[in-house]
């Protein structure tokens, strides 16, 4: 049994396709298949059920693969020990970030982070929360930036800051003259929200259901995957939407009147850096955390956890 064979094993489990796994391992498919066959013969068990499409591990194979991931992670720590002795950080850092954070958070820190660590190659993917967690579990990402808590035992959460929700209201709406908004004033019939799959949608509905109407009619059926689209709809049509605080920090002056904070205590969302429990690249990820926190506006960075809106599925 070799580490290379274990890497092939994990790759097939990750991609559920021998040709794709071979491509990501930079070997030919016959080479990968032959090595896995040798491993199965040595173990005396069948790890994969090749009769199924896509290929699936057997029940015993699942346990073997889980242990293989542990062994590979531990072996990579040797390389990390050597890397940690170097003064300059280097290597690749794969980051997954949710769409309601990416356009507002990434510009705050990414340039300064790269300037401080020129030997680091950063790869960023915008993904939904479930996709980030899945990729962390399959070692396809090193770190995620998303909203917590997740209640996922495989994931370690490191809270970074607490971001307030604000209402973005059309000037002709009945609430447009109020400087502050209460949750029980919100009516779902007037609300534009993101489509299914976004944790932000779940949080918005959670806020509204604390006192607002539970009717799911009206604009609730609109399909949008972009907060910027929701802003434009509110500006040009009618109604209101809820937005994260970072998304309105640099809003043009003429549109600032559309932004209405909530009454205290404001509903907040907990933005965290998340990693797999057995994560590597600790110094690199710690440097990322420090840079993000340093670049967050002081008013947000210094805010304490109060009324965090948990992600719920409706």
From TrEMBL:
GO molecular function: DNA binding; DNA-binding transcription factor activity
Residue ranges of domain HTH lysR-type in the record: 1-58
Alphabetical list of Pfam families matching this protein: HTH_1, LysR_substrate
Keyword terms of this UniProt record: Activator, DNA-binding, Transcription, Transcription regulation
Signal sequence coordinates: none
Protein name, UniProt field: Transcriptional regulator
Cellular component aspect of the GO annotation: protein-DNA complex
InterPro entries: LysR_HTH_N, LysR_subst-bd, WH-like_DNA-bd_sf, WH_DNA-bd_sf
């Amino acid at each position: 049994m070799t580490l290379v064979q274990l890497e092939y094993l994990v790759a097939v489990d990750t991609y559920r396709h021998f040709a794709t796994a071979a491509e990501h391992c930079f070997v030919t498919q016959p080479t990968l298949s032959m090595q896995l066959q040798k491993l199965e013969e040595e173990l005396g068990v069948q790890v994969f059920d090749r009769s199924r499409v896509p290929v699936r591990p057997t029940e015993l194979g699942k346990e073997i693969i889980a242990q293989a991931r542990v062994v590979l992670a531990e072996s990579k720590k040797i390389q990390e020990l050597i890397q940690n002795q170097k003064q300059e950080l280097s290597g690749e850092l794969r980051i997954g970030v949710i769409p309601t954070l990416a356009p507002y958070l990434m510009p705050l820190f990414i340039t300064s982070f790269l300037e401080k660590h020129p030997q680091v190659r950063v790869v960023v993917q915008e993904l939904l929360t479930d996709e980030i967690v899945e990729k962390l579990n399959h070692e396809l990402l090193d770190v995620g930036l998303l909203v917590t808590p997740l209640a996922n035992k495989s994931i370690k959460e490191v809270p970074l800051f607490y971001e307030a929700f604000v209402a973005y209201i059309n000037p002709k709406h009945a609430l447009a003259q109020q400087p502050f908004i209460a949750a029980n004033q919100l009516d779902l019939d007037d609300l534009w929200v993101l489509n299914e799959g976004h944790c932000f949608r779940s949080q918005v509905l959670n806020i509204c259901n604390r006192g607002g109407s539970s009717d799911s009619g009206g604009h609730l059926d609109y399909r949008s995957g972009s907060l910027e689209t929701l802003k434009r709809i509110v500006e040009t049509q009618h109604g209101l939407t809820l937005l994260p605080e970072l998304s309105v920090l640099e809003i043009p002056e003429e549109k600032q009147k559309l932004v209405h904070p909530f009454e205290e205590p404001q509903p907040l969302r907990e933005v965290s850096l998340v990693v797999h429990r057995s994560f590597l690249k600790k110094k690199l990820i710690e440097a990322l955390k420090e840079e993000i926190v340093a670049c967050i506006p002081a008013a947000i960075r210094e805010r304490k956890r109060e009324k965090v809106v948990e992600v719920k599925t409706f």
